Amino acid sequence: xxxxxxxxxxxxxxxxxxxxxxxxxxxxxxxxxxxxxxxxxxxxxxxxxxxxxxxxxxxxxxxxxxxxxxxxxxxxxxxxxxxxxxxxxxxxxxxxxxxxxxxxxxxxxxxxxxxxxxxxxxxxxxxx
Length: 128
Description:
Layout: H1 2-35, E1 37-41, H2 45-59, E2 65-67, E3 72-77, E4 80-88, E5 94-102, E6 105-106, H3 108-127
């Protein structure tokens, strides 16, 4: 009986952990959407993703952590953690979202500058 109760407690605890992890992912996604600067470009998502990574490499000497499947990148620029996400938006359009956070405070100015530079370099690449 004692082992049965311990097993049930273990199952409940692992189930709660899964719920906490899932809830955290949802909160981070909402946080990102609420505090990100966004630009939409008329380019293929793969091309935009490659250009965004190149632009980030020009802006920082820090390591860029990427998730190729989700097309997200995180790095440090000017002492802030900068997150970039690229995704298909509409047919022929791609959305770029940038969020910057320094000391738990959102830096919309830095996010806007990073977003603008990515779009500017993408536009420059398109002309060449």
